[in-house]
Amino acid sequence: MYAQALDQKDKAPSVVEDPEHLARFEARCAAEEKIEPKDWMPEGYRRTLIRQISQHAHSEIIGMQPEGNWVTRAPSLRRKAVLLAKIQDEGGHGLYLYSAAETLGISREELYEQLLSGRAKYSSIFNYPTLTWADMGAVGWLVDGAAIMNQIALCRCSYGPYARAMIRICKEESFHQRQGYEIMLTLAKGTPAQKEMAQDALNRWWWPCLMMFGPPDAVSEHSQESMRWKIKRFSNDALRQKFIDATVPQGHYLGLTFPDPDLKFNEATGHWEIGAIDWSEFKRVLSGDGPCNRQRMRHRRQVEADGAWVRDAARAHAEKRAAREAAAKIAAE
Ligand SMILES: [Fe+2]
Ligand SMILES: [Fe+2]
């Protein structure tokens, strides 16, 4: 789902770039030209994109878990079919994005290893539990809704393969957001217990969703360079504000309240203003101490181990076939 501004420091040593190449590259970015895999690019650009695209891919894959938790308990066949389709979309987004990352010269195996060893991050939002059916509504409406804000901007990212992947992904995310809102609408117009369940889900997901946009601009380390290179089009705070302005009226239409006593509409600016975000929670969850971090990684490692025999069998089959084809070629000569 989710390109999150995680702002980790790159550990690799900085490379001295050829000034002529660099100047031409910067000019291409400024002229809104797309950068393609075989084009020259600065090491920092490549590294930033590998980090961002792979975090995004990992987030799609890990993001399947909180929703997978409700497949067997969906309240109707229709709900189950829709939820399954959505989760399958997320798996597809992950594979699509791993392919985009591979065009930058990193292997799929290395990307998986980075996730499984804990060296790579994924969006902190997926370390929260999905406690009730209403969470399927809140996740679609809010988590996918926040993801769209980020991803619409990424459709114009300077790196061609990433930008093109985003166009298709955004279409599916838009379906995800609507299916989530439809669940919320059904619950909000249902029995008092159902409405309470919807309210409880909104209460739990609102603040973590606002954190999905990453740290405030004032402390965001990578922003300036990413903006100049047209990887990022809007700052974390600008995207967060867009999300708040779009989402608050939707929540009010549901007849629900937001868990923020300081939330108010500023007539002069035309924007909704929120109270202070608890960034210590964001840091805690990101550094591995969220409610479900260990569970998510344990499950991912288990799935990887369970699937090993399938990969081994596919590899053995491919080798056998290649040997058979080579033998047939020799016999024909
Ligand atoms: Fe997705
Ligand atoms: Fe999604």
The DSSP helix count reads 13
Report the strand count: 2
Overall structural class, as computed from helix and strand content, comes to mainly alpha
Overall 3D shape: globular
Percentage of residues in strands: under 5%
Described by strand count, sense and barrel closure, the largest sheet is: 2 strands, antiparallel
* SSE pattern: HHHHHHHHHHEEHHH
List the ligand species. Answer: fe (ii) ion
Binned, the helix content reads 55-70%
Structural commentary:
By secondary structure, the protein is an all-alpha fold. Helices cover 65% and strands 2% of the residues. It contains 13 helices and two strands. The chain has helices at 19-30, 43-62, 64-68, 77-102, 108-116, 134-154, 160-188, 192-211, 223-228, 236-253, 279-289, 293-306, 308-332, and strands at residues 264-266, 271-273. Helix 2 (43-62) runs antiparallel to helix 4 and helix 6 packs antiparallel against helix 7. It is globular, with a radius of gyration of 22 Å. Mean pLDDT is 93; it is low at 1-10. Bound molecules: fe (ii) ion (2 copies). One fe (ii) ion binds at residues 1, 90, 144, 147, 173, 176.
